[in-house]
Write a structure and sequence with these properties.
Blueprint (H helix, E strand, L loop, with lengths): L11 H4 L3 H7 L4 E6 L2 E13 L27 E6 L3 E8 L6 E12 L1 H7 L13 H7 L19 E4 L9 E4 L14 E4 L14 E2 L3 E2 L12
Antiparallel strand pairs: 1-2, 1-6, 2-5, 2-8, 3-4, 4-5, 7-8, 9-10
Length: about 230
């Protein structure tokens, strides 16, 4: 049986390109999370690009560590990290092996498996909030560090995969500064989103952390928010 055009899996060649090419072209694609309870699918509506050791906002800016090792691997793999002791975030590794660039998945619309997503996100008041923000997206999809390094191009049986979906037309893509990124990377306009989509998360600038009082703001991002 031949898959419909929007159900074709995205190949590794798609991810083996510069991060600023890959990031906007992920908008409108379908992220599939296969779980023992059934699949959950999300139409990607908001992303952020991180350019590894060339990007002050990236986890890999100061080189390879045990935490970010999967970023330096082949493109088309997942980089999952735990932040502030509370949330997970999902990134897709791209570029040439060793470049450590990746795309943070910031938001999307749950288009299949809404019941499963609601079980994981009982505080969501509306379906558009189920995956509205990187921590919410990861929670709705039951993403944790066990998925770090997962090959997202391994086929439909893989825990994570990306399908062609319905790419957002370039005329309907907007970009601006990344959420919560401070320092030298604060002004990079590397956040991309589908214009007017209700699932896109609110933009919040970087807010410095205060000793003893934590950090004010979203809590899912920081100076080094994504990949």
């Amino acid at each position: 049986m031949i898959a419909a055009p929007d159900r074709m899996p995205i190949t590794r060649d798609f991810f083996a390109r510069p991060v600023l090419e890959v990031a906007p072209e992920l908008l409108g694609r379908t992220l599939v999370r296969t779980t023992p309870d059934g699949p959950i699918e999300v139409r990607i509506t908001e992303v952020e690009a991180y350019a590894g050791e060339a990007d002050p906002g990236s986890h890999a800016y100061r080189g390879r560590t045990e935490r970010n090792a999967s970023m330096f691997g082949p493109p088309g793999h997942a980089y999952v990290y735990f932040i502030y002791g509370m949330w997970f975030s999902l990134n897709l590794v791209c570029g040439e092996e060793g470049t450590a660039s990746g795309v943070l998945l910031r938001a999307g619309e749950v288009i299949k498996g809404q019941e499963l997503a609601r079980e994981r996100r009982p505080k969501a008041r509306k379906d558009r909030e189920l995956a509205q923000g990187p921590a919410r997206l990861a929670t709705a999809l039951s993403v944790d560090r066990s998925l770090n390094g997962t090959d997202i191009c391994a086929g439909p049986a893989a825990p994570l995969s990306v399908l062609t979906g319905h790419p957002v037309h370039p005329d309907h893509i907007r970009n601006g500064p990344r959420t919560g990124v401070g320092g030298a990377g604060a002004t990079h306009p590397w956040r991309f989103w589908a214009d007017g989509d209700p699932t896109v998360s609110p933009y919040r600038p970087h807010v410095p952390r205060h000793r003893g009082g934590g950090r004010r703001g979203e809590g899912t991002t920081g100076r080094q928010a994504g990949a």
